[in-house]
Write a structure and sequence with these properties.
Layout: H1 3-25, H2 28-44, H3 54-75, H4 84-87, H5 96-106, H6 109-120, H7 125-132, H8 136-154, H9 157-160
Helix pairs in contact: 1-2, 1-3, 2-3, 3-7, 5-8, 6-8, 7-8
Length: 161
């Protein structure tokens, strides 16, 4: 990959990469850091990565960096703080995006990642498997389970509106 191809890659995929990471971790600063780390890792491997594989390389690297960050944060969690939103329920929602974001947040990390890659970013099962390191059948199972959970969690559209 040349420097011009690298710059083009940054311009083309920065927003998609940021959205994918932000949907998973819900922290703008951490999402920016992960995207920055991804581009740094790409820059260090610029001579080894083909320009045609750059998008897949970046999403794979960003996904793995995000998982490392999540694992690191779990070890450093502050147990004194309590999330009061977990203790409260609100049956009336006015924003479907809010409902969907809340439902996505309740999914396990791997299911959330595969559902976002499939339904938000438009990757096929094989590409998702390459990014996450799962087999195609594992990807399908995780997507199915995530969709079943989302369907049960959200319920019928009449109860949401």
């Amino acid at each position: 990959m040349t420097i011009n191809e690298f710059n083009s890659c940054v311009d083309q995929y920065a927003d998609q990469l940021y959205r994918f990471i932000l949907k998973n971790i819900k922290d703008k600063d951490k999402a920016r850091d992960i995207v920055q780390d991804t581009y740094e890792k790409l820059w260090l491997k610029v001579s080894d990565v083909e320009s045609s594989n750059s998008k897949s390389y970046m999403f794979t690297t960003a996904y793995r960096t995000m998982i490392d960050s999540i694992r690191k944060d779990k070890k450093q969690a502050d147990f004194d703080s309590v999330d009061t939103n977990v203790l409260q329920t609100n049956n009336r929602y006015s924003d479907l995006k809010e409902v969907l974001d809340e439902a996505l947040a309740k999914l396990p990390a791997i299911q959330r990642s595969v559902i976002l890659l499939r339904d938000y970013e438009g990757y096929n099962y094989d590409e998702i498997g390459g990014i996450t390191g799962l087999s195609e059948s594992q990807v399908k199972v995780y997507i199915y389970r995530a969709r079943v959970f989302l369907k049960e969690y959200i319920g019928s559209l009449d109860t949401v509106i």
